[in-house]
Design brief:
Layout: E1 3-8, E2 16-25, E3 30-37, E4 43-48, E5 56-59, E6 64-69, H1 85-90, H2 96-106, E7 115-120, E8 125-130, E9 137-141, E10 144-148, H3 158-170, H4 177-188, E11 223-233, E12 240-244, E13 253-255
Helix pairs in contact: 3-4
Length: 269
């Protein structure tokens, strides 16, 4: 996952609204949405069929965890544990505060390739940094709008600033959850590279990332936005989940909320 947008405590009728684009190599196989865990609690999300994990998981209580990777000039270290385990670990709990306390107490960032996560529910949102040291860096975030891409949340990259401006223009505290979902879907479809200096490239000193990677919806020859998800956590009940099986500029969003009640054997659309 390379773009996470979270509105926490912003919308009156939707305590948590998350929109996400997953960017990946086109030839890496994945399921866009499935039941990752049937019960205790039930967990929905995409599945990376190479490593078996997920980039974003949400459970029936409304706990959501999504990650973005830290770019590296070196190939992924396959001797380390899959980062895709992490969203599943956080989504195994009934509330975000307990999930962060329990899971982070057992995590050693050196066991994984570097990444960042947002973990939240209808009550709270946390950032979790997994990029060094022996313990995750955890921060409970105040109510607000957050954009996490492939840089640390505080870095406020050109891409994050551009996306945040689009989100702010399309949503207000008085907007309904439905209207905000529609606005965020439009943000996820946007192809414009961010204006201003680009992020340094992991390939070496003095290099910058290609401008097309700073768009919300990414298209390159071998890599780009493979799918999208919008999760709406209301005041009560299971979240509403919508997915686009492909770049959201081309694939329509489908409502898959019925998967909360679907038999496990029929859970993959």
């Amino acid at each position: 996952m390379c773009l996470l947008i979270a509105l926490s405590g912003v919308l009156a009728d939707t305590p948590l609204l998350v929109a996400a684009n997953r960017d990946e190599l086109y030839d890496r196989p994945a399921e866009v949405i499935t039941v990752l865990r049937d019960s205790g609690p039930r967990i929905l999300g995409g599945r990376d069929t190479v490593a078996g994990g997920t980039w974003l998981a949400v459970n029936s209580h409304g706990v959501l965890a999504g990650l973005t990777n830290q770019p590296s000039a070196r190939a992924r270290d396959d001797t380390r544990r899959s980062r895709g385990e992490l969203p599943l670990a956080f989504a195994a709990y009934a509330d975000a505060a307990t999930a962060v306390a329990k899971v982070c107490a057992e995590l050693d960032p050196s066991d994984y390739n570097p990444c960042w996560l947002l973990v939240g529910d209808r009550h709270a949102l946390f950032s979790v940094g997994m990029t060094g040291g022996r313990h995750p860096v955890v921060e409970q975030l105040p109510a607000g709008t957050y954009v996490l891409e492939n840089v640390p949340l505080p870095d406020n990259s050109a891409k994050a600033r551009q996306v945040a401006r689009m989100v702010t223009a399309g949503t207000t505290s008085t907007a309904s959850g439905d209207a905000a979902e529609h606005a965020l879907a439009a943000v996820l479809r946007d192809h414009r590279p961010a204006a201003g200096p680009q992020q340094p490239d992991a390939g070496g000193p003095g290099r910058v990332r290609p401008a097309e990677l700073s768009a919300a919806c990414v298209h390159t020859a071998s890599y780009g936005t493979r799918s999208a998800m919008i999760v709406s956590v209301g005041a009560t009940g299971p979240p509403r989940v919508r997915v686009a099986d492909g770049p959201p500029c081309q694939a329509p969003f489908r409502d898959v909320t019925a998967l909360w009640a679907a038999p496990a054997q029929d859970a993959t659309p």
